[in-house]
Design goal:
nine-stranded mixed β-sheet; 14% strand; four-stranded antiparallel β-sheet; single chain
Length: 662
């Protein structure tokens, strides 16, 4: 059965929606059609051995469940069985719901669990309540989904088409669990391109998706590998948080003959159920901009106590966006380079490229990935590709076993203009990537050459050192009435007794309103004398009080003398403190002398700000300013053209007013 026939078969199955229309919302159709499709397929697959299984069930009914199940699986010749004599075609029209649920509960555990997560019984009751259950059962009972008519691969394509229809009917909510197939196809193609040494007939590879959703990436990678290799063993693994999406994914795997025990339910970040397992290929589309507060304690504990022995050694991103946590989770599952290494394809929004300055968790994660030479390419995608958001997105391609020509380099591909407009929007999805554009993007990646859409950079190009530039504090001090009034605003002075506060004000006022001190040390000497003359005996004047007087009476003055500490060193002015990002391939002081010193001759670099990893001056940061590298300056229109347009507009308005006045 070719692809067109698969689509036709899927459309025939989806036509059950005609029965549901009116009694169910459009977004509910898939929740009914998918489990019934699975049920009918499993029934058709088990039909040749059904009699043997029933005989075995009768013969071994008194044996322990584990032993009995193993024997029935053996008789069924499949990774699942059903021990009920019922079929969809033999269900009673008068007690359809009870018979149907009895039938479903007779499946082996893996299959039965799928129906539980579909909340199948709830949907059965809803169908019965509107008198539609038996009609739906009849429709599926007459649908031929036997292996003779539909191979496992063919049935997988049909089920994928049904999942796609479900995604489209769900519109805005779909993006949480469904990745559009054009995006899946592009990401999978990028990751698997050039991997012929692994994708060969008879080969064995593992694929993993930590946010599996309905299994789109897993299915697509399986199809791709089978087509390229002509037949190989692909072991699919995944974990999904949403029970319904998990059920769809597991059903898809079961239909294709995959080991469904490798599809897990749960939160990947807080409960990695495939811990310690490396994979050859990893694909993921984690949620965009979703906070990880719910799992914060576990993630922070793992970072602190396990460090690089855990998943989050380099650092943690801000709690408002957990995308980079999923990326580091994938990196932790890379196969060692000596064993062939691994490749990752992950879809992220824009913030992981640049959010967070030097020393932040995001920057440290980028630093780790880039300095360990794992980032192969980043592809900027068109906007409006996803069902629930129109934001800019990027495909990151990572590897810990780069080919020689890519080592130490990162390729940026601008595919933002390669979106085609859809005839009808699906939620926020207004664009799709046509096959011709998809093929060209993959070719751009494969060529690994410079062009308008492809730029290649050394890893160091994305790194910098954030140095702290200090300038000296310069103050003039004056006991003017305006500044004396500010004494009462200082907290140390507010804490004084009334008599002490008055004495302090008098001491400062005695300095004279006309005199302006431009040397702090000279002023402090005069102030000390004034205190001795005006303050009551026994009143202590400590550093906080002296600092408060300076804060009130002092003002910055670029012409004043430099304030110095006890060792004679210039004291930095925090208000003039600045930072410079020095490219990683430049020497800090060469850059400082060239870019800073000519403009502020009295500035200096704070040598105490040392990077904790390389122990050199300046905190290392990494960012990937993707858009900057593809920005093309467009000069503004000539003023004459703008004036002409304004004049034409004014003339039209004047003409309209004149016509109204007639």
């Amino acid at each position: 059965m070719n692809t067109e026939n698969h689509s036709r078969q899927a459309a025939l199955i989806w036509s059950v929606a005609d029965l549901l229309r009116g009694d169910f919302k459009q977004s509910q159709y898939g929740r009914i059609i998918l489990p019934f499709t699975l049920l009918r397929r499993l029934e058709c697959v088990l039909e040749p051995t059904k009699a043997k299984v029933l005989e075995a069930a009768e013969a071994h009914q008194n044996k322990p469940d584990a032993v009995r199940d193993k024997l029935l699986l053996s008789e069924a010749g499949q990774p699942f069985f059903n021990a009920s004599p019922l079929t969809l075609g033999t269900l009673s029209p008068t007690q359809t719901a009870d018979d149907l649920m009895s039938y479903v509960r007779s499946f082996s555990q893996d299959a039965r669990e799928i129906f539980e997560h579909f909340e199948f019984e709830n949907h059965v009751q809803q169908l019965e309540a509107v008198d539609l259950l038996y009609q739906v059962v009849e429709r599926f009972a007459k649908t031929d989904l036997s292996p003779e008519r539909l191979s496992g691969y063919g049935m997988g394509l049909v089920f994928e088409e049904l999942i796609r229809k479900f995604a489209e009917s769900s519109n805005e909510t779909a993006g949480e669990h469904f990745t559009p197939r054009d995006v899946v196809h592009l990401t999978t193609s990028l990751v698997l391109t050039g991997q012929d040494d692994k994708l060969k007939s008879g080969g064995i590879v593992t694929v993993y998706d930590p946010t599996a959703g309905t299994g789109g990436f897993l299915s697509e990678s399986d199809v791709y590998m089978q087509q390229v290799s002509g037949g190989m063993s692909v072991s699919l693994h995944g974990q999904e948080l949403n029970p319904e999406s998990y059920a769809i994914c597991k059903a898809d795997m079961l239909i294709k003959g995959q080991a469904v025990s490798q599809i897990k339910l749960g939160n990947t970040l807080s409960d990695d159920q495939l811990a310690g397992e490396p994979f050859d290929f990893m694909l993921a589309n984690p949620p965009f901009g979703v906070d990880w507060k719910k799992v914060q304690k576990g993630v922070v504990d793992e970072h602190k106590h396990k460090g690089f022995d855990g998943r989050f050694g380099p650092g943690l991103p801000r709690v408002s966006d957990g995308s980079l946590l999923f990326l580091m989770h994938l990196v932790s599952k890379m196969r060692p380079k000596k064993e062939g290494g691994s490749r990752i394809g992950i879809i992220l929004n824009g913030s992981p490229l640049f959010t967070g300055g030097a020393g932040s968790g995001e920057s440290e994660i980028r630093r780790y990935l880039l300095q360990h030479d794992m980032v192969e390419a980043i592809v900027g995608l068109p906007t409006d590709l996803f069902y629930n958001t129109g934001i800019a997105t990027y495909v990151w391609v990572l590897s810990n076993n780069k080919p020689a020509e890519r080592r130490g380099k990162v390729q940026l591909i601008d595919a933002t203009a390669r979106g085609s407009k859809m005839r009808k929007s699906l939620g926020s999805k207004r664009h799709f990537i046509a096959d011709r554009d998809l093929d060209e993007v993959v070719r751009l990646y494969g060529r690994f050459a410079e062009s308008e859409e492809s730029k290649i950079f050394p890893v160091e190009a994305f790194g910098y050192r954030r140095i702290t530039v200090e300038r000296p504090l310069r103050l003039n001090v004056q006991a003017s009435s305006e500044r004396l009034a500010r004494l009462g605003e200082q907290k140390p002075i507010q804490k004084l007794a009334d008599a002490e506060r008055d004495a302090l004000n008098n001491a400062c006022a005695s300095l004279g309103e006309e005199q302006v001190f431009t040397n702090r040390e000279a002023f402090l000497k005069v102030l000390k004398t004034a205190f001795a003359e005006h303050l009551p005996a026994g009143m202590k004047v400590g550093a906080p009080l002296q600092k408060a007087v300076l804060a009130a009476l002092g003002e910055r003055d670029s012409e004043a003398d430099i304030c110095r500490d006890k060792k004679g060193n210039p004291e930095p002015d925090t208000g003039l403190r600045d930072h410079e990002n020095v490219p990683l391939d430049e020497l800090v002081f060469d850059y400082f002398e060239r870019e800073v010193k000519p403009h502020v001759p009295d500035a200096w670099v704070d040598k105490s700000k040392i990077d904790p990893l390389d122990e050199r001056i300046g905190i290392v940061g990494f960012e990937i300013p993707f858009n900057r590298h593809f920005y093309t300056f467009e000069p503004p229109r000539p003023l004459e053209d703008i004036d002409a347009d304004l004049q034409a507009c004014t003339d039209r308005i004047k003409q309209m007013i004149e016509e109204m006045a007639v």
